[in-house]
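seq:
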Amino acid sequence: MNFGKVAVLMGGRSAEREISLKSGNAVLAALIRKNVDAHAFDPAEHDIAGLRGFDRAFIALHGRYGEDGTIQGALELMGIPYTGSGVLASSLSMDKWRTKLIWQASGIPIAKYELLTADSDFEAVAMRLGLPIFVKPACEGSSIGISKVKDAARLKEAYGLAAQYDSIVIAESFVEGKEVQFPVLGEKVLPSIRIETPHEFYDYDAKYFANDTRYICPGLPDEEEEKLHELVLKSFNALGCRGWGRVDLIIGQDGPVFLEMNTVPGMTDHSLVPMSARKTGMEFDDLVLRILEESHVG
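struct:
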């Protein structure tokens, strides 16, 4: 397939810039190895009007302005096909609160949660949700700004940290169980990855730098894995996602609990989508090309 001149969008202005550069450079190298006319493009360093010279865009921007529908809208206006989900699905998926609202309405199981403000009665929140509680900014990724709170007296402090990154802050009940992530490619659910870490939780360091994080793929027994595929696709489609993505969930004592949707998952050497794809016989370069083939406008 002749893709023409391809921009690999990386870097950007979000708190996840460092990881985006790692993902983008890995994607860029893969496309070049596949003889695609691919070039790096960092919206933080170049006016996006410069994209008018490109035929397609591979979005490797994580977080705000890249994963939230912003760059997708700009590419739509310019008529440039791009990878991943569209404007609305990207915006909804980036917002953990609105994702929960849609999943809840669609019958997708989620954890108990509340929205926090500076005026919240933190003791009462702790009583209603139980401890531990995860406190997280609604519109950040890579576990940035997240705290695991075991003492109600620390809840206000955790709120303050999360509020530095977003005006909407979520308090979510901790669910004991297996942390599992399911990549989706097209309309196919790829093998799950179960994550085990000695860290308090799967935080930024455990995701991108630690060498003691364990990844088991497939992460579940075959029968359990198959049973979840339909629900994973339902969660993906409920938000209007397309192309590719990754669904994060916990398998607790009472069944699966869905946590969040990632519409531009990481593509670094620690990333899970390439790991899962390899289990199906798809190497990294072929995965990147397959994602590019799904690029679209509208």
